[in-house]
């Protein structure tokens, strides 16, 4: 086999990394290059490009290597797959990151890896890449390191010293599926690593009694990812799992990734892709939990047989099941209730609260404030609009759901 | 009388601000000022040279809005801003997003901010030859608004160690040896090819997942007007053309035959993973097995099994209810607030915490998530019964001479008696394992008591019970 060029390796190791969906580069500490080095971070992240799959490119997302001794059925890099393997040297990753960064292609590096030899060895090699970028090249951009399951706590601690964000994937929403599909992974040690990251982050935020900052640790927090549709878990199970993860480990985000067919698939999994809209509904529900004050149980009341409706969004589904709480008087209702009106986003609600301090709002004002009145109409009263019986009409749901498509005749 | 104001190309905001303050101080109505500097036959007069009588004050939010709207390409921007200033100064109506002028300015500000953000995202540098030790990079960008000047800060902060130039049709920014200078814009410069650009293209093509096309999402965030200056977008047509075929090939290929050498590799790894013993033969064995316990459903939500700690030859064993939030994260019993209460009580009773064995009736944390909190939930009898297996092993290997049960759950686990704890507290009962069990309050119960006197009484009772347990442990065993 001819030696692989840098471009060959980049092709293999970025192709292998695309199933990790996180690309966030926001938050974390503020730093820049005016006192040396190159790069800056802090504030909102920047998406430098978008690929035709609608995902943004914010970080150079690559694997250190796609050689792996684990055999996770859903993963293209599992040991039993026949994909071409490659491995970057430390210098190659460092140089790609810096050269891309200087040309303003990226915000930084997202480094993951297959597991070579042992989890400890892999985590140590990844931390070395991050350390080289930080110490030898004064790199001030963003670094996201994937935490390797079962890596020693001191290696995770070192990773947190160089990285802005750490993440470890819970992979699947139920422990039993992880054990079945990823036999080398253990849900309890994955959670243990997340617990460690939370504890270390909290310790790093506390100032010691001398007033000195504790040692730096992943200032942009941690996140995780779940694959949707590779096991039989329903949406309510998934949302309950997310709720526990958010509550337990202070996660910034739980990412949902609709299982997508991979080349060189394992026979253990169906080659059926769940509809992408399912993933979208889960993200909407996740947002409702984090920014709109909904609990997973409340969202579940709008679900059917444990699944979120695909044709309408979860907030609307919830509102349709709780019509007794509507219509709301937009000029009087408190923030928590306004947030529950379909078609009102967090920002719109903020603007409504602001604007109604000066005067009584009318229907036209809501349009200007960015409310989606097509959705909101049945659920609000305001000067110039009252839904009368609309709130309680039997066919209200049908008004929002897209018209059913007639099946084509053969 | 009408007035005309012409504003300079740079330092525009300060010039507008001076002019607007002047005009407002003379109470010159918005319709009497032409802010586009309109010359010609009917040109208006210049503003008066000195300030008028009217005091000029405005809400603090306005200058910030004006500073942003300023960079908008619309020739109307100065007139609109003055209208808004006039309205605010005359207290006519607040400038919220719900009224037409407020909304228009809000939209203009958003458009400017978006333009700056897109410039930060879509400027693409190429390396150009340098005659100094600093590397040099240059880019051509076409913003919608006059956003190069307000948007340059990011590049200055980010690329302080290199020289860079961003040229736009109206303005060029140049940073050399850390000094930022602006001069007039021009046409697209001819930049030499850059090898990293083809690596970037390789990355862009390979990070794309052909199985999930979402063109609208791509186009809304990366509108076509920017494409001509983004090298990677040239690949998009080919990527799309091939996508469907690639997905079809994946589907048609179906599941592949596993690589024959692979089974040995993952099997070897799995052999190194800890495996629970069916019947543990030591305390360490029991712990290893408990770490993988799945006897009830609590393990799915909790982080980890929290096994006991302390002296494996202890004469006294203390059993609590279950690990709390902190214990669950750390993996050790009694390290949270309730643990502090217990340790304090042990100190008062002059008992060395390292000389006892501390554990819980249930080894996994049971909770209800509420936002970013996990609220403690008491384990039910079934869960306590399942977990008795582990408690029994701890009792069997540690063989304490006395056991102190803290709270009703521990009392039930040890004695199988689920009647109320209050009348039993302070008494010695015989455990299921046959040894003496002293019953006491759980430290979290003490923490929850709101009255200081009640708390004090309960704490003293706990100390007394610890002392009673120590006395029991020191008693010669009954014949």
UniProtKB/TrEMBL annotation, chain A:
| Listed Pfam families | Radical_SAM
Instruction: Please give the Gene3D superfamilies that the UniProt record associates with this protein.
Output: Aldolase class I
Question: Which terms does the record give in the GO molecular function aspect?
Answer: catalytic activity; iron-sulfur cluster binding; metal ion binding
Note whether Metal-binding occurs among the keywords.
Answer: yes
Asked if Cytoplasm is a keyword of the record, the answer is no
Q: Which UniProt keywords apply?
A: Iron, Iron-sulfur, Metal-binding, S-adenosyl-L-methionine
**Which parts of this chain are annotated as the region Disordered?**
23-42
Q: What is this protein called?
A: Putative DNA modification/repair radical SAM protein
Give the taxonomic lineage as stored in the record.
Bacteria, Pseudomonadati, Pseudomonadota, Alphaproteobacteria, Acetobacterales
UniProtKB/TrEMBL annotation, chain B:
Q: What is the lineage of its organism?
A: Bacteria, Pseudomonadati, Pseudomonadota, Alphaproteobacteria, Acetobacterales
Question: GO terms for molecular function, please?
Answer: 4 iron, 4 sulfur cluster binding; deaminated base DNA N-glycosylase activity; metal ion binding
Entry-linked CDD domains:
UDG-F4_TTUDGA_SPO1dp_like
- PANTHER family the UniProt entry points to: TYPE-4 URACIL-DNA GLYCOSYLASE (PTHR33693:SF9), TYPE-5 URACIL-DNA GLYCOSYLASE (PTHR33693)
Stated name of the protein = Type-4 uracil-DNA glycosylase
Family listed: Belongs to the uracil-DNA glycosylase (UDG) superfamily. Type 4 (UDGa) family.
Domain Uracil-DNA glycosylase-like, chain residue ranges per copy:
307-467
The cross-references to InterPro entries, in alphabetical order and at most eight, read: DNA_repair_put, DUF4130, UDG_Type-4/5, Ura-DNA_glyco_family4, Uracil-DNA_glycosylase-like, Uracil-DNA_glycosylase-like_sf
Q: Which Pfam families match?
A: DUF4130, UDG
Q: Share an example GO biological-process annotation for this protein.
A: DNA repair
**What keyword terms does UniProt attach to this protein?**
4Fe-4S, DNA damage, DNA repair, Hydrolase, Iron, Iron-sulfur, Metal-binding
Q: Which organism is it from?
A: Ameyamaea chiangmaiensis
Q: Does the keyword Signal feature in the UniProt annotation?
A: no
């Amino acid at each position: 086999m001819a030696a692989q060029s840098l471009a060959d390796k980049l092709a293999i190791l970025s192709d292998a990394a695309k199933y990790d969906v996180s690309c966030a580069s926001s938050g974390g500490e503020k730093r820049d290059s005016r006192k040396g080095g190159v790069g800056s971070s802090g504030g909102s992240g920047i998406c430098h490009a978008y690929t035709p799959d609608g995902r943004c490119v914010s970080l150079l997302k690559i694997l250190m290597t796609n050689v792996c001794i684990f055999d996770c059925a859903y993963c293209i890099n599992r040991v039993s797959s026949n994909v071409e393997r490659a491995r970057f040297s430390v210098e190659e990753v460092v140089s790609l990151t810096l050269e891309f960064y200087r040309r303003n292609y990226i915000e930084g590096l997202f480094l993951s890896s297959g597991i070579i030899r042992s989890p400890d060895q892999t985590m140590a090699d990844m931390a070395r890449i991050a350390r080289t970028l930080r110490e030898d090249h004064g790199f001030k951009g963003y670094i996201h390191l994937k935490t390797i399951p079962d890596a020693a706590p001191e290696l995770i601690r070192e990773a947190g010293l160089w990285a802005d964000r750490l993440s470890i994937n819970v992979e699947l929403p139920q422990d039993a599926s992880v054990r079945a599909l990823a036999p080398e992974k253990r849900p309890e040690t994955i959670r243990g690593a997340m617990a460690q990251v939370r504890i270390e982050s909290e310790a790093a935020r506390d100032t010691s009694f001398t007033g000195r900052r504790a040692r730096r640790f992943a200032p942009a927090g941690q996140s995780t990812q779940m694959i949707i549709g590779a096991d039989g878990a329903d949406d309510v199970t998934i949302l309950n799992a997310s709720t526990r993860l958010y509550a337990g480990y202070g996660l910034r985000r739980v990412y949902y990734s609709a299982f997508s067919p991979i080349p060189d698939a394992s026979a253990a999994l169906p080659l059926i892709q769940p509809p992408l809209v399912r993933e979208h509904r889960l993200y909407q529900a996740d947002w409702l939990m984090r920014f709109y004050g909904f609990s997973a149980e409340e969202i579940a009341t709008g679900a059917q047989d444990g699944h979120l409706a695909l044709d309408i969004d979860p907030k609307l589904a919830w509102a349709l099941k709780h019509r007794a709480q509507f219509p709301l008087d937009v000029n009087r209702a408190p923030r928590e209730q306004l947030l529950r009106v379909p078609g009102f986003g967090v920002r719109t609600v903020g603007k409504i609260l602001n604007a109604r301090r000066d005067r009584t709002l009318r229907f036209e004002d809501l349009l200007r404030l960015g409310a989606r009145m097509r959705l909101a109409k049945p659920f609000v009263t305001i000067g110039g609009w009252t839904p009368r019986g609309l709130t309680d009409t039997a066919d209200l749901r049908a008004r929002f759901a897209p018209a059913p498509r007639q099946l084509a005749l053969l | 009388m009408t007035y005309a104001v012409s504003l300079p190309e740079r330092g525009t905001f300060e010039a507008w601000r001076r002019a607007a303050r002047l005009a407002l101080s003379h109470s010159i109505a918005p319709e009497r000022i032409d802010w586009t500097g309109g010359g010609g036959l009917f040109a208006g007069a210049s503003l008066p040279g000195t300030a008028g009588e009217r005091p000029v004050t405005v809400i603090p939010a306005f200058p910030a809005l004006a500073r942003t709207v300023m960079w908008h390409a619309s020739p109307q921007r100065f007139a609109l801003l003055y209208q808004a200033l006039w309205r605010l100064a005359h207290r006519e109506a607040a400038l919220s997003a719900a009224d037409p002028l407020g909304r228009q300015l809000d939209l203009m500000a958003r458009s400017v901010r978006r333009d700056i953000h897109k410039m930060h995202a879509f400027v693409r540098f190429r390396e150009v030859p340098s005659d100094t030790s600093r590397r040099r990079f240059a880019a051509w960008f076409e913003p919608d608004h006059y956003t190069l000047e307000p948007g340059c800060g990011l590049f200055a902060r980010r690329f302080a160690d290199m020289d860079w130039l961003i040229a736009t049709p109206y303005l060029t920014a140049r940073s050399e040896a850390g000094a930022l200078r602006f001069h007039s814009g021009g046409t697209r410069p001819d930049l030499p090819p850059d090898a990293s650009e083809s690596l970037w293209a390789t990355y862009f093509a390979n990070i794309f997942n052909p199985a999930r096309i979402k063109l609208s999402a791509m186009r809304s965030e990366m509108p076509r007007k920017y494409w001509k200056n983004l090298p990677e977008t040239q690949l998009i047509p080919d990527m799309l053309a091939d996508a469907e075929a690639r997905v079809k090939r994946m589907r048609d290929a179906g599941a592949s035959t596993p690589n024959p050498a692979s089974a040995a590799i993952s099997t070897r790894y799995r052999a190194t993973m800890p495996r629970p013993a069916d019947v543990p033969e030591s305390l360490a064995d029991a712990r290893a097995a408990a770490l993988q316990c799945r006897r009830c459903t609590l393990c799915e939500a909790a982080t980890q099994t929290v096994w006991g700690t302390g002296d494996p030859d202890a004469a006294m064993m203390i059993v609590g209810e279950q690990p709390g939030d902190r214990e669950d994260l750390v993996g050790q019993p009694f390290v949270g607030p309730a643990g502090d209460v217990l340790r304090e009580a042990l100190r008062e009773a002059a008992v060395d915490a390292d000389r006892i064995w501390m554990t819980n009736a249930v080894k996994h944390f049971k909770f209800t998530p509420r936002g970013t909190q996990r609220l403690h939930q008491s384990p039910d009898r079934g869960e306590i019964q399942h977990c008795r297996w582990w408690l029994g092993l701890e009792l069997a290997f540690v063989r304490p001479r006395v056991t102190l049960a803290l709270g009703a759950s521990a009392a039930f686990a040890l004695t199988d008696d689920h009647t109320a704890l209050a009348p039993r507290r302070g008494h010695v009962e015989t455990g299921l394992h046959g040894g003496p069990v002293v019953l006491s309050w759980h430290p979290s119960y003490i923490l929850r008591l709101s009255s200081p006197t009640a708390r004090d009484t309960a704490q003293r009772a706990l100390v007394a019970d610890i002392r009673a347990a120590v006395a029991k442990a020191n008693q010669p065993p009954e014949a």
